Amino acid sequence: MLENLTHIGTISAPFGVKGAIKLYTIGDPHRLLDLERVWLEGRGWLKVQIAEAHGPAVMY
């Protein structure tokens, strides 16, 4: 299953008081807004509750 993963960006440090993450995307960040979950290398699956585009990044 994990062999079918695609690298979509790089995560910065946790952001905000609710533990959001900022993902600096490769390509257009708007194409990632409808994802229901993302795989974080070394952490596992992250369920996306809210996704917002902020310049070249997406906030989850």
Explain how this protein is built:
The protein has 60 residues and is mostly beta strands. It has one domain: Elongation Factor Tu (Ef-tu), domain 3 (Beta Barrel), CATH 2.40.30.60. The protein contains no helices and 6 strands. The strands form 2 sheets. A 4-stranded antiparallel β-sheet has the order 1-2-6-5, with no helix packed on it. Strands 3-4 form a two-stranded antiparallel sheet.
Features of the shown structure:
45% strand, Elongation Factor Tu (Ef-tu), domain 3, mainly beta, 60 residues, 4-stranded antiparallel sheet
CATH homologous superfamily annotation: RimM
Q: Helices and strands, in N-to-C order?
A: EEEEEE
The biggest beta sheet reads: 4 strands, antiparallel
Helix content: under 10%
CATH top level class name: Mainly Beta
Mean pLDDT level = 78
Give the helix/strand class: mainly beta
Q: In the CATH classification, which architecture applies?
A: Beta Barrel
Give the gist of this structure:
The chain has 60 residues and is an all-beta fold. The protein is built from no helices and 6 strands.
Secondary structure: elements and pairs:
Elements: E1 9-15, E2 20-25, E3 37-40, E4 44-47, E5 52-54, E6 57-59
Antiparallel strand pairs: 1-2, 2-6, 3-4, 5-6
